[in-house]
Automatic annotation (TrEMBL):
The keyword Plastid does not apply. It comes from Cyclobacterium xiamenense. It comes from the Bacteria. Residues 484-682 form the ThuA-like domain. The lineage of its organism: Bacteria, Pseudomonadati, Bacteroidota, Cytophagia, Cytophagales. Keywords: Glutamine amidotransferase, Signal, Transferase. This is Type 1 glutamine amidotransferase (GATase1). InterPro entries: Class_I_gatase-like, ThuA-like. The keyword Transferase applies. Gene3D superfamilies: 3.40.50.880. SUPFAM superfamilies: Class I glutamine amidotransferase-like, Peptidase/esterase 'gauge' domain. GO terms for molecular function: transferase activity.
Amino acid sequence: MIAPRYWFYCVLTFVMAGASLSSAQNPTAKQTDPYGPILLSEDGSWCWFQDERALLIDDKVIFTGVTSAGHNTVTEWELSTQQITSHVLTEGTLPPDDHNVAALMLRPDGKILTAYAGHSIDSLVRYRSTTRPYDIRAWEEESVVPTNGRVCYSNLYYLEDEDKTYNFFRGNENNPHYLVSEDYGDSWVVGGRLFEFPGRSYLKYASDGKSRIHFITTDGHPRHFNNNIYHGYLENGQAYRSDGTLVGPLSTTENSSLKPSDFTLVYDGDLETRTDVSWTSDIQLDDRGMPFFVFSVTKDPITRGETRNTALGGFDHRYHYAEWNGREWVASEVAYAGSRLYPGENEYTGLISLHPTNKSVFYFSSDVHPVSGEPLLVNGSQRYEIFRAERREAGEPWYFSPVTFGSSEDNIRPIVLADPDKEVVLWLSGRYTTYRDYRLKVYGKILPNPDTRTSDQGKKITFLISKDPDNYEADLTVPYFSMKLAKENGYQTEVILGQGERTAFHLPDLERIKNSDLLVLFLRRVALSPEQLGLIKKHLQEGKPVLGIRTANHAFSVREEIAPGYEDWWDFVPEILGHENKGYGPATVKTTVAYAKKPGKRLLEGLSPHPWKSDGNLYLIGDSLDPKAEVLLNGSSSGQSNAIAYTRKAGKSRVFYTSLGYPTDFTHPQFLQLLKNAIRWTLD
């Protein structure tokens, strides 16, 4: 079976033979870094119970939004030119409310269908399609489908085997209903009711595009229910549990015999106990058609139905991941999600979103460290940041790397798109006071598929890192990068995270570096025992290579009084790295990266010729660099510039150093490619 969102890409590839995409207009300001983040809209928002809210069509991303004034919009982002075009669907007919955001669907004829509804303000489902294929600039007039109850949300799916389009929405008595179209959404009829029960369930849907629509559902709103989460699917007019057991027919009337608890229980929130209250977030299908999904769990909910004393809970959310292996559901907690977005909606998280074709990748927003749960503070305020999560394969640990970091505003509600060449993440940034009161910008970031050339699988790389507030989250980014090296390039990798005070630091099991071919250092001002420093020095005496990242240029330069039995090594920087640490540029100013040599060859192979930026400040070395060093990259910031990546020899050891390594650098493809090239060079 075909994965749900990737199916649209496949259809596009077929129907576009000989056709051309229309060109974008209204270009944004020039962007020097094609790998973003890129500002796509000054004013937009979305809820998460409408799908699809974004489509990736060849070289274009099309997404919907609701402005702070309540205007429904559709925006096109042309990836190669970074041009932006936006079209207003509604202006003044719906109030400001992110629940009004539209769903999108690429029709088989290439036109784009959209459907939307007010947030339970009337009984009308609104819809329209573009007048031309793949072109958001011109739309048919808005049409409506009256229903017999107040409506909210839209979820659009075309099933090839039936040649029908479905729109699942919340309708009469807050139960899920659906519409059916036999002309790709030009006209609709009421199909029936999915559930009938005295509750307000929250569903997320995914389709294989052929014959089957999957869903996950809660019992109700987490404010009012100690929710469980269930899974089922619809096929040929019947409803089934996860294992294919028939539940009953899909209703074609205003009544239904189905309810959430008829389907497969995946997460047991214990309906009788007010703890571990769950809420659905996202669902996708893998390349075999097997469902996998993510959801949030509130560990400290307030009393059911409470609307006044909202300060008493909602500060500890967790993200969970579940996958169906063909026999059973396997679910586990994967990350700390942090605190609620605002009082009153205590179960609102920053949100988690799945990669549509790769079940080993997801993105999420959190205002705490995803592993430890420690608050993410910027100038004393807790901020939501976007993270990318990845694992080597099913059943293995997840690793995390920041997409945003140290932000002055919150970053929430990511959406992930992908095709065979790239993945794209969209998110919202700004103020979110309530779902009716917000001021948010839309950002996007492109990540091309990684370099997966297999290297010598006998080579072992050991990373030595330390964790402290000034070491740029190396405890997150380095394990993430280490995992990717093993997964994508076949290296044997190990991360050793040090322990203890910096004046008496210990690297557990450091004797294992005797078998390492390369040492990578991301340590900050630590003193080691003579035995441990001796092991590192012996590695160099044997002519083995070293790679230093950012704070490695003061790795063993300890300013405080060192504990008895420990040593510093100030000469490591001039003797091994080949320069002197001259301090830093302004902490809040980014670094513009420029090439010292023409990209495309040797250590700059695979890098784009475009200049790019690092969110980190410039490390200064003055004119102290070894004149025999080969400079690869220069950095500039606040009127100052110097080398930021270079190679040299220390004795017989090959040395690579870069002062890049800010947390968001590890989700920048240029930086990742540079590190991979440097590793190949050091090991050559």
